[in-house]
Amino acid sequence: MSNRLANEDSPYLQQHKENPVDWWPWCDEAFSKAEKENKAIFISIGYSSCHWCHVMEETVFENKECAEILNENFICIKVDREERPDIDKYYQEVHMLLNRRAGGWPTSIFCTPQNKPFFAGTYIPPQSHSGSIEGMGFIELTRLIAKKVKEMDTKLFENADEIEGFLQHTEHPKEATVLKEDFYKNFLLQAKNNYDTRNGGFSNKPKFPHTATLNALMVIQRLYDDVSAKAMVENTLSNMMKGGMYDLVDGGFCRYSVDEKWLVPHFEKMLYDNALLCGTYTQAYIINNDEKYLTTAKEIANFWYNFMSEDELFYSASDADSDGGEGNYFVYSYEEVYTTLIENGYDNAKEMCEQMSVTHYGNFEGKSIIRFENEIPQWYTNIKALLQKIRQKRTYPFIDKKVQTSWSAMMIHALFQLGAVDNSYKEKAIKSLDKLLETLFIDGTLYHTTLIGKKPKVEAFLEDYAFLSQALLTAFKYTQEELYLIHAQRFINKALEKFYKEGLWNFSSGEFAIKAEISDTTYTSSVSIMIDALLTISTLLEDEKYKHFAFKTMEYNSYELGRKPIYYPYMLTQALRYVKEDRIIKTSEQNINSHAYALTKIKYPFIELKKSEDDGFMICGNTSCFAHTHELNHIDTLIEKSLH
Q: 80 with 13: CB under 8 angstroms?
């Protein structure tokens, strides 16, 4: 018999509707019942494409003994972190406070009947495996907690009160420092210290893409001709696309690599990763003229349109698991690849398998992930179609069909950038942006997420306002459609009203008014994206108040930004932008459309475009125009002169 989650829209909550656990969705009724019946609260947070969430469901939530303990002694609440990122961020903070290390998913939180947290973990196996509380299994742990709550254990409740006090305290920066161009030198030094010279990337393992770091390095390359920045970007991007974390068969990147070589991923594919990487590879192509980067950017975009979209809207994620195991859809046996090649007339099948890293022993649990250690040969285009045919016989991983404002806006922003190189992507971006607004901006209210055809319920968070504003301003840049600018200003104003106070930004308002992160972690900080939008709108509208809000935000965070810029690469680029100032190119709409690619190749990274009646190119700063030319290739020289 289904539990209460059967009535929820979230695909993740739907996955748990047949569990024997008597799950509640997040609601007041659940918390009232816990207090009334003096039952501890168990909160489990995850998302639909999370591998370890599936493992915990299988080993714990489908386990009858675990379910009986939970149902008798706890009120159990399931939360989709993608649907309610505010709740998730709050409890990640709880985990950090209690364990002195970052959490992850699944997140397992235990609270008093008054909903005060006192224990936080991630995946907890059913059985204990050592004598400490860290090694305590779910069965032993839940029995112990149930006993202590029933007995009104004084120490437990005192700890919960103390933890709540810590959580309600807001830490403000100790001091401000002057925003300096020299911050980038510290960033470069820290990036080099973290850099893997052999494989690229900025950690050993597991390895994440760190797109904000790569984008900051490309800004530094453009501003200062820094060869080390260029080398770090090119080595990282080239290694990432060899195959493994990058799916050379269908396209698109997986979440991260478990090894240092970008070979073995967790196989889930997230919209935010692919959106950010699509933009990064596009920028790398624009700066370095390497066709393989453009090919990768297009393959990412095409993958999302071919596999992960409907009615111009983008799905949020696809799963790592299928056919009963992790990665089964993605990997190949030597026999099936070799046989397919022979059957299709390839006499050198053995050598081709070798080049594709397909071996008898495999590179992942006895099977092979397609990967090229060197340049991808031309013959692979035809072979890719054969490999896709093999996959078509398999079960495709589960797709989470939620549409999210923030993540969709990231992809739309990237598509407009790619559209400056290939106009077909600009047309796609326009359709997707218009559809997103129609779907999630209803009667003057912006929403965070919905399923196609369903009415959205969760109102937007700071990240939705920030990424959508950025996408709208990019749309304006390449279309000069005034309505996009009007929408962007409306959302920026609303975000300031809802989330901003004296340099500090909250991620959400209302029940969980939690401070927004300024570091670029899972993806780019919404605070830094907001700074970007504020500076852009200030330039375009010639309105200094928006620039003031951007400055106050950077000033509030300047002490940390100056000391540890490696944690805040996107904010660093906005600080450089603030110090050096935007340049505006005013020209005809026809020039903007017909010379879109040439205009993106202008070396100076902080360029805005505005249409005018001029058939030449007027170059302006924030307060005045200082040069005019009819020659596109003179613009770089004229801007360069203005910087000295």
A: yes
We report the CATH number of the domain holding residue 74 as: 3.40.30.10
Q: Read off the pTM.
A: 0.93
Helices (H), 349-397: 349-355, 380-392
Give the residue-averaged pLDDT of 214-241: 98
pLDDT bucket at 130, cuts 50 / 70 / 90? low
Sheet holding 607-611, edge to edge: 607-611, 583-587, 617-620, 625-629
Tokens coding 389: 């045919």
Sign of CA dihedral 26, 31, 34, 37: negative
Contact 233, 221 (CB under 8 A): yes
Task: Retrieve residue 148's tokens.
Answer: 């202590």
Residues 548 and 593 in one domain: no
Q: Tens of pLDDT along 84-108?
A: 999 999 999 999 989 888 889 999 9
DSSP string, 537-549: HHHHHT-HHHHHH
Residue where the block lists tokens 């386990």: 63
Question: Does the residue 137 lie in any domain?
Answer: yes
Are 362 and 425 contained in the same domain? no
So what's the pLDDT on residue 165? 80
Are residues 286 and 420 part of one domain?
Answer: yes
Nearest to 525 by CA among 575, 570, 469: 570
In total, how many domains does the chain have? 4
Is the peptide bond between 206 and the residue preceding it cis, with omega within 30 degrees of 0? yes
With 0-12 / 13-18 / 19 or more C-beta atoms within 10 angstroms meaning exposed / middle / buried, residue 418 is buried
